[in-house]
Design brief:
- There is one protein chain.
- The chain is 52% helix and 9% strand.
- By secondary structure, it is of the alpha+beta class.
- Strands 2-1-3-4 form a four-stranded mixed sheet.
- It is globular and about 50 Å long.
Length: 210
Amino acid sequence: MSTHAQRERLLLADLLEMAGPDAPTLCDGWRTRDLAAHVVVRERRADASAGLVIKALAPRLERVQAEFAAKPYEELIQLIRTGPPRMSPYALKQIDEAANTVEFFVHAEDVRRAQPDWTPREPDPVFADALWARLERVARMLGRRSPVGLVLRRPDGRTAVARRGAPVVTVTGEPGELTLFAFGRQDTARVEQDGDVDALAKLRGATLGI
């Protein structure tokens, strides 16, 4: 049975393939080749991907990622499609679903929304609820650097507090758009923001996400 993560994996691979190796992305300084290398290294090189969270290991991560980025682009796409090796924790369905659903959704949008003719996706209700469930769990981690209080709100009224404090900005949108906003894609997320002018300005320039 296909999972959300598997579906988003294949969509990301297709988008990267269609865009080609040198297309822009929403990831600062990364072209599609760099993003593809990041996805592969994250799943296949635990010795290097630890640099994503451990600053002392970041130089090693950069070196390994550069090595993968130098590989043929078609090879990177195929590695993304086929998924991690059997011995990787990501090969377990439960871990893949928990760790990669949002990862691949956000990166797919990084490719799509960097193109001039992009249009918003409309995730089905089941997938939207899956994104919301994950966002609720990590909202405070993603919003920890917000300079203002930050509340994420679905159109139906359900909310998640990403940062306590005053003044407060309430960001309203569908779960996918709120996910992108909370992961630092404020400029392209289709959301409405409610708060005083100064608070909105501070949030606009804030660094959100992991």
